[in-house]
Amino acid sequence: MQKLVTIFLLIATMVLPGCGYNTIQTQDEQINAGWAEVLNQYQRRADFVPNLVNTVKGYASHEQEVLEAVTASRAKVGSIQATPELVNDEQAFAKFQGAQGELSSALSRLMVVSENYPQLKADANFRDLQAQLEGTENRITVARNRHIAAIKDYNITVRSFPSNLTAMLFGYKTKPSFTVENEKAISSAPVVDFGK
């Protein structure tokens, strides 16, 4: 009997490293860490939006529609509970991504409006906030790219043999990743007409 147990343990030791369980755990933790960084950068952006809006409001108070859009978008982002479980729920993830996209769009419109106000563009506080926004958008892009790479590695692992058997046994499924909001719009080349 002792010999049988020893043989079983020897076989288990050789088979278990190839089951993928530890790889799935490592990759899942990388996803959680990447997600935390994405949220950190989105929070950084949300935190300085009120300062940006107030600075612009001082120069461009009649641009109320744009200012309200930024404020409403920030409130919508803040209303979504961004938990680690969000990356496992495709619908909740899409809702979160949509809200962040709306805020990005509203902030872009705000920056376009600022072009019409030379005094605003010359304001040191506004220039500082604009630089922070640009830096934060770059950080968001880097964090999202890292998160996308971690999701890709994880999804490959849970779909590849033999680790897919381990994934099925323990209930691990593929996770949603960031997507482009309007793929049809970006699939066609923009029309540039200098003749008009």
Description:
By secondary structure, this protein is mainly α. The chain has eight helices and no strands. It has helices spanning 2-15, 21-59, 64-79, 90-114, 118-122, 124-159, 163-170, 183-187.
What's the layout of helices and strands?
Elements: H1 2-15, H2 21-59, H3 64-79, H4 90-114, H5 118-122, H6 124-159, H7 163-170, H8 183-187
Helix pairs in contact: 2-3, 2-4, 2-6, 3-4
What's the helix-strand series? HHHHHHHH
**Gyration radius, in Å:** 24 Å
Strand content: under 5%
| Mean of pLDDT | 82
Helix content: over 70%
Compute the number of helices: 8
What is the 3D shape?
Answer: elongated
Query: How many beta strands in the DSSP annotation?
Result: 0
Distance between the termini: 90 Å
Please identify the structural class as seen in this structure.
mainly alpha
Weakly predicted, low-confidence segments: 190-196
Main sheet overview: none
